[in-house]
Amino acid sequence: MATDSKATSTERQSRSQAANRRDMIGYAFITPWLIGFLCFSLGPVLASLYLSFTKFDLLSPAIWVGTDNYARMFLDDPRFYQALKVTFTYMIFEVPLKLAFALGIAMVLDKAIRGGAFYRALFYIPSLLGGSVAIAVLWRQLFDGNGTVNQILLWAFGYKGQSWISTPETAIYTLVLLAVWQFGSPMIIFLAGLRQVPQDLYEAASIDGAGAFRKFYKITLPMLAPVIFFNMVLQIIEGFKAFTPAYVVSGGTGGPIDATLFYTLYLYQEAFSYFRMGYASAMAWVLLIIIGCFTGISFLTSKYWVYYEDDPR
Amino acid sequence: MGTFTRRQFVAAAGTTAALGLSSSLSIAQTAAKLRCFWWGNPDRDKRTKALLELYSQKSGTQVAAESLGWGDYWTKLATQVAGGNAPDLIQMDYRYLFEYARRNTLLPLDKLLPLSDFSTNDRNGGKVDGKLYGVNLGSNSKAMVYDTGMMAKVGVKAMDPKWTWSDFSRIAGEISKVNPGKYWGSSDNSRWEQGFEQWLNQQGKSLYNMDGQAGFTKDDVAAWFDLWDKMRKAGAIAPPDVGAVNTGKVEEYEVSRGLAAMSFVNSNQIVAFQALNKNSLAISPFPRDKAGSSGHYIKPSQMMSISSKSKSPEEAAKIINFMVTVPEGVKILGIERGVPCSSAARATLTPDLDALGKMQIEYVASVGKTAVPLPPPPPKGAGEVENLLRRVGDAVAFGKTSIADGAQQFHGETIRILARAA
Q1: Please, where are the H alpha helices in B60-192?
Q2: What residues contact A146, with CB distance under 8 A and at least 6 apart?
Q3: Which of A231, B46, B222, B353 could form a disulfide with B407 if both were Cys (CB 3.0 to 4.6 A apart)?
Q4: Please, are residues B256 and B273 in contact by the beta-carbon 8 Å criterion?
């Protein structure tokens, strides 16, 4: 009995040594990033926490104002709420649409079609270009009053459209479209996930007479749930951080009439147009908390709909 | 067969999230001895770079050139000054001169640059608390830029400098009829501070008073919105979805985009506008009420300042001198930044001036005869008020807000912005 327990403990010890070694290798690999993070990110991050309690315009020294910035944000700033509204509207449409689109295309590409690799690369291109200024400028050309979209509408339906990008009701949706178009990276992740779904499940289902829809609903979706969840969390974080398209398309104004005033864009305006670094820092921390909350909620609810193979269920 | 384990997943998600949230900053380093930074347009960039190159050849001093658009310029300048990395030569605007000078970020220039052949007025435009901080690179006044071909088409051969708002509205309406739904008489200027300030001057008021407070009432704002609302309803000016994309860059104005015949800009900008337009353009004073002045005033279009941190202020002063008085430099810059203040520089330029140049010099001279005094410098927060007018003006133009509510909102918000910025 005694020898038995001793053997187990040595075994456990050697296993934990192996795990330690593996951890060390892992840390070694991320060292360059860690150094960068500690030197260039952590300092500014902590400084911004301090600045969020000050009034600071870059040129004069920061003045401590306590929680004034936070009070103004929640009690006395309609543009803050407008920015939240715009960002949430954007995300409500962008995240599900992009995921659905990415999954759809991934499923098509998963069927071994000829030239699959070519199409995979082709569909990924927008994601490489998408964050760039050039594409945002292109978007402006497409959806402006005399833009390509209106020319096509006029030619095909005789419909004379307004400028989609500068009409308050439609401006935000042109940006949703721009984001959905960049479905490449979730698509690649879905594709990897689809390849991992055991084919015998589909075969068994076929023998039982399941149709394509039932197979998708009963096998693909549940098996893919962790990947969907992973993509969703990433897209939520990305969505909150969206900045470049709105900045370029509206020329940094968030216009027309604040219809594209993303949270990050408003933060940028406060910081770099109006030089209220304290207020902008406070906004950044509130954003961090919002993103944290959404990620937290996603993780908490995930146990009800995400299935992991190692779950003892 | 294991697809994802929970632990792998959490680790991957955490790392990706952290990577995504961190951002990086890059700091530009230059090997040159001096740095010169300005806001501008492609034409100005070409001229200024040529001038700095010539100066480098003659003096052996390397000068690095940096330029940005108006909006981004102030962002980058503030960041550089705060980071102790200010350029030696800083292009300055009347709006920001006081702020920068009073925070000791600029060098007093009285001893370095006597500017003996500048008029007292031209020198004083660059003074703060009795000391010279900015050297006037050229004077301008507001002006209406227009397409001469379109004017001729509706029978306007020569612009009457004393034309009225009702003339403006009538002519704009006629131009809108030439190519209905595709081309309009004028851009919608209700959203532009440029027009609103001038209109207030015509009423004997000002945008800001000496104490840095709003110099207008909400009734003034309502009257201004109403003036443009009538023209909008009559189809004389471009609809709001045409104007809303204009953030104030030369290429974004309706005149440059081939959508309208008239826009309110600055007199020196005629050079930049003509560089982008195939049609022949000209400038005219703003329309006015039947009785009263046109409200024009002459101001420094832009100034050149020297950073208080500059390691070689004497050399920097020589470059400014090269820009404003040395004939070779003056010729390269031309009148793109406005009419030069030095009489010698004007004399140097006059023989070689093209029609556009003559037009600008004559315009500033003729407007100068009846000009109102230079208004006090805009208070802190003025930039935010300028953007506020665009936002509220658009809301009224799109019919989202009534004129009365819009006027109330603009007036109330202006007071709040100024109070917060003070």
Answers
A1: 70-82, 94-102, 120-124, 148-153, 165-176
A2: none
A3: B222
A4: yes
Nearest CB partner across the interface for A230, out of B9, B241, B421: B9
**Secondary structure (H, E, C), B312-365:** CHHHHHHHHHHHHCCHHHHHHHCCCCCECCCHHHHHHHHHHCCHHHHHHHHHHH
The SS3 of residue A283 is helix
Of residues B105, B181, B391, nearest to A258 (C-beta): B391
Using a CB-CB cut-off of 8 Å, the residues of chain B touching A162 are 241
Please judge whether A234 and B13 are an interchain contact, meaning their C-beta atoms are less than 8 angstroms apart: yes
A59/B100 Cβ within 8 A: yes
Interface of B with A in 379-418 (CB under 8 A): 381, 383-384, 387, 390-391, 394-395, 398, 400
Which residue, A86, A59, A64, A37, is CA-closest to A267? A86
Alpha-carbon span B341 to B377, nearest angstrom: 20
Flag if A198 and B103 touch (Cβ within 8 Å).
no
Residues B181-196, mean pLDDT to the nearest whole number: 92
Query: Which domains can be identified in chain B, with CATH numbers?
Result: 6-138+300-354 (3.40.190.10), 142-189+237-287 (3.40.190.10)
How far apart, in whole angstroms, are the C-alpha atoms of residue A172 and residue A91?
11
Cβ count within 10 A of residue A41: 17
Are A216 and B354 a contacting pair, CB within 8 Å?
no
- For position B19, what pLDDT does the model report? 43
Report CB contact under 8 Å: B241, A223. Answer: no
> What CA–CA distance (Å, rounded) separates B409 from A156?
43
Q: Do B244 and A258 touch (CB under 8 A)?
A: no
For residue A310, pLDDT beyond 70: no
Cα→Cα distances B355→B156, B284, B352, Å? 20, 14, 10
For the entire predicted model, the pTM comes to 0.81
Whether pLDDT at A1 is above 50: no
- Which A residues, 76 through 105, put their C-beta within 8 Å of a C-beta on chain B? none
Residue range B83-134, pLDDT digits in tens: 888 999 999 998 889 888 888 899 999 999 888 888 888 888 888 888 999 9
- Give the residues across from B164 on adjacent strands: B288
Across the strands, what pairs with B303? Answer: B92, B136
Angle between helices A78-110 and A184-196 (to 10 degrees): 40
Which two structure tokens, joined as six digits, stand for B125?
A: 């435009």
- Of B273, B252, B272, B401, give the one whose Cα is nearest residue A144: B252
Confidence bin at A13 (pLDDT 50/70/90): low
Q: Are A59 and B103 within 8 A, CB to CB?
A: yes
Per CB-CB distance under 8 Å, the chain A contacts of B18 are: 37
Read out DSSP for A49-95?
Answer: HHHTTEE--SSS--EE-TTHHHHHHHHS-HHHHHHHHHHHHHHHHHH
Q: Shortest CB distance from B245 goes to which of A30, A166, A227? A: A166
Q: Which residue has the higher pLDDT, B171 or B24?
A: B171
pLDDT at B23: 38
pLDDT digits 0-9 by tens, A183-205: 888 888 888 888 888 888 888 88
Give the integer Cα–Cα distance in Å for B266 and B268.
6
φ, ψ of residue B36 to 5 degrees: the values are -125, 130
pLDDT tens across B23-71, in order?
Answer: 333 334 444 589 999 998 888 999 999 999 999 998 888 999 999 988 7
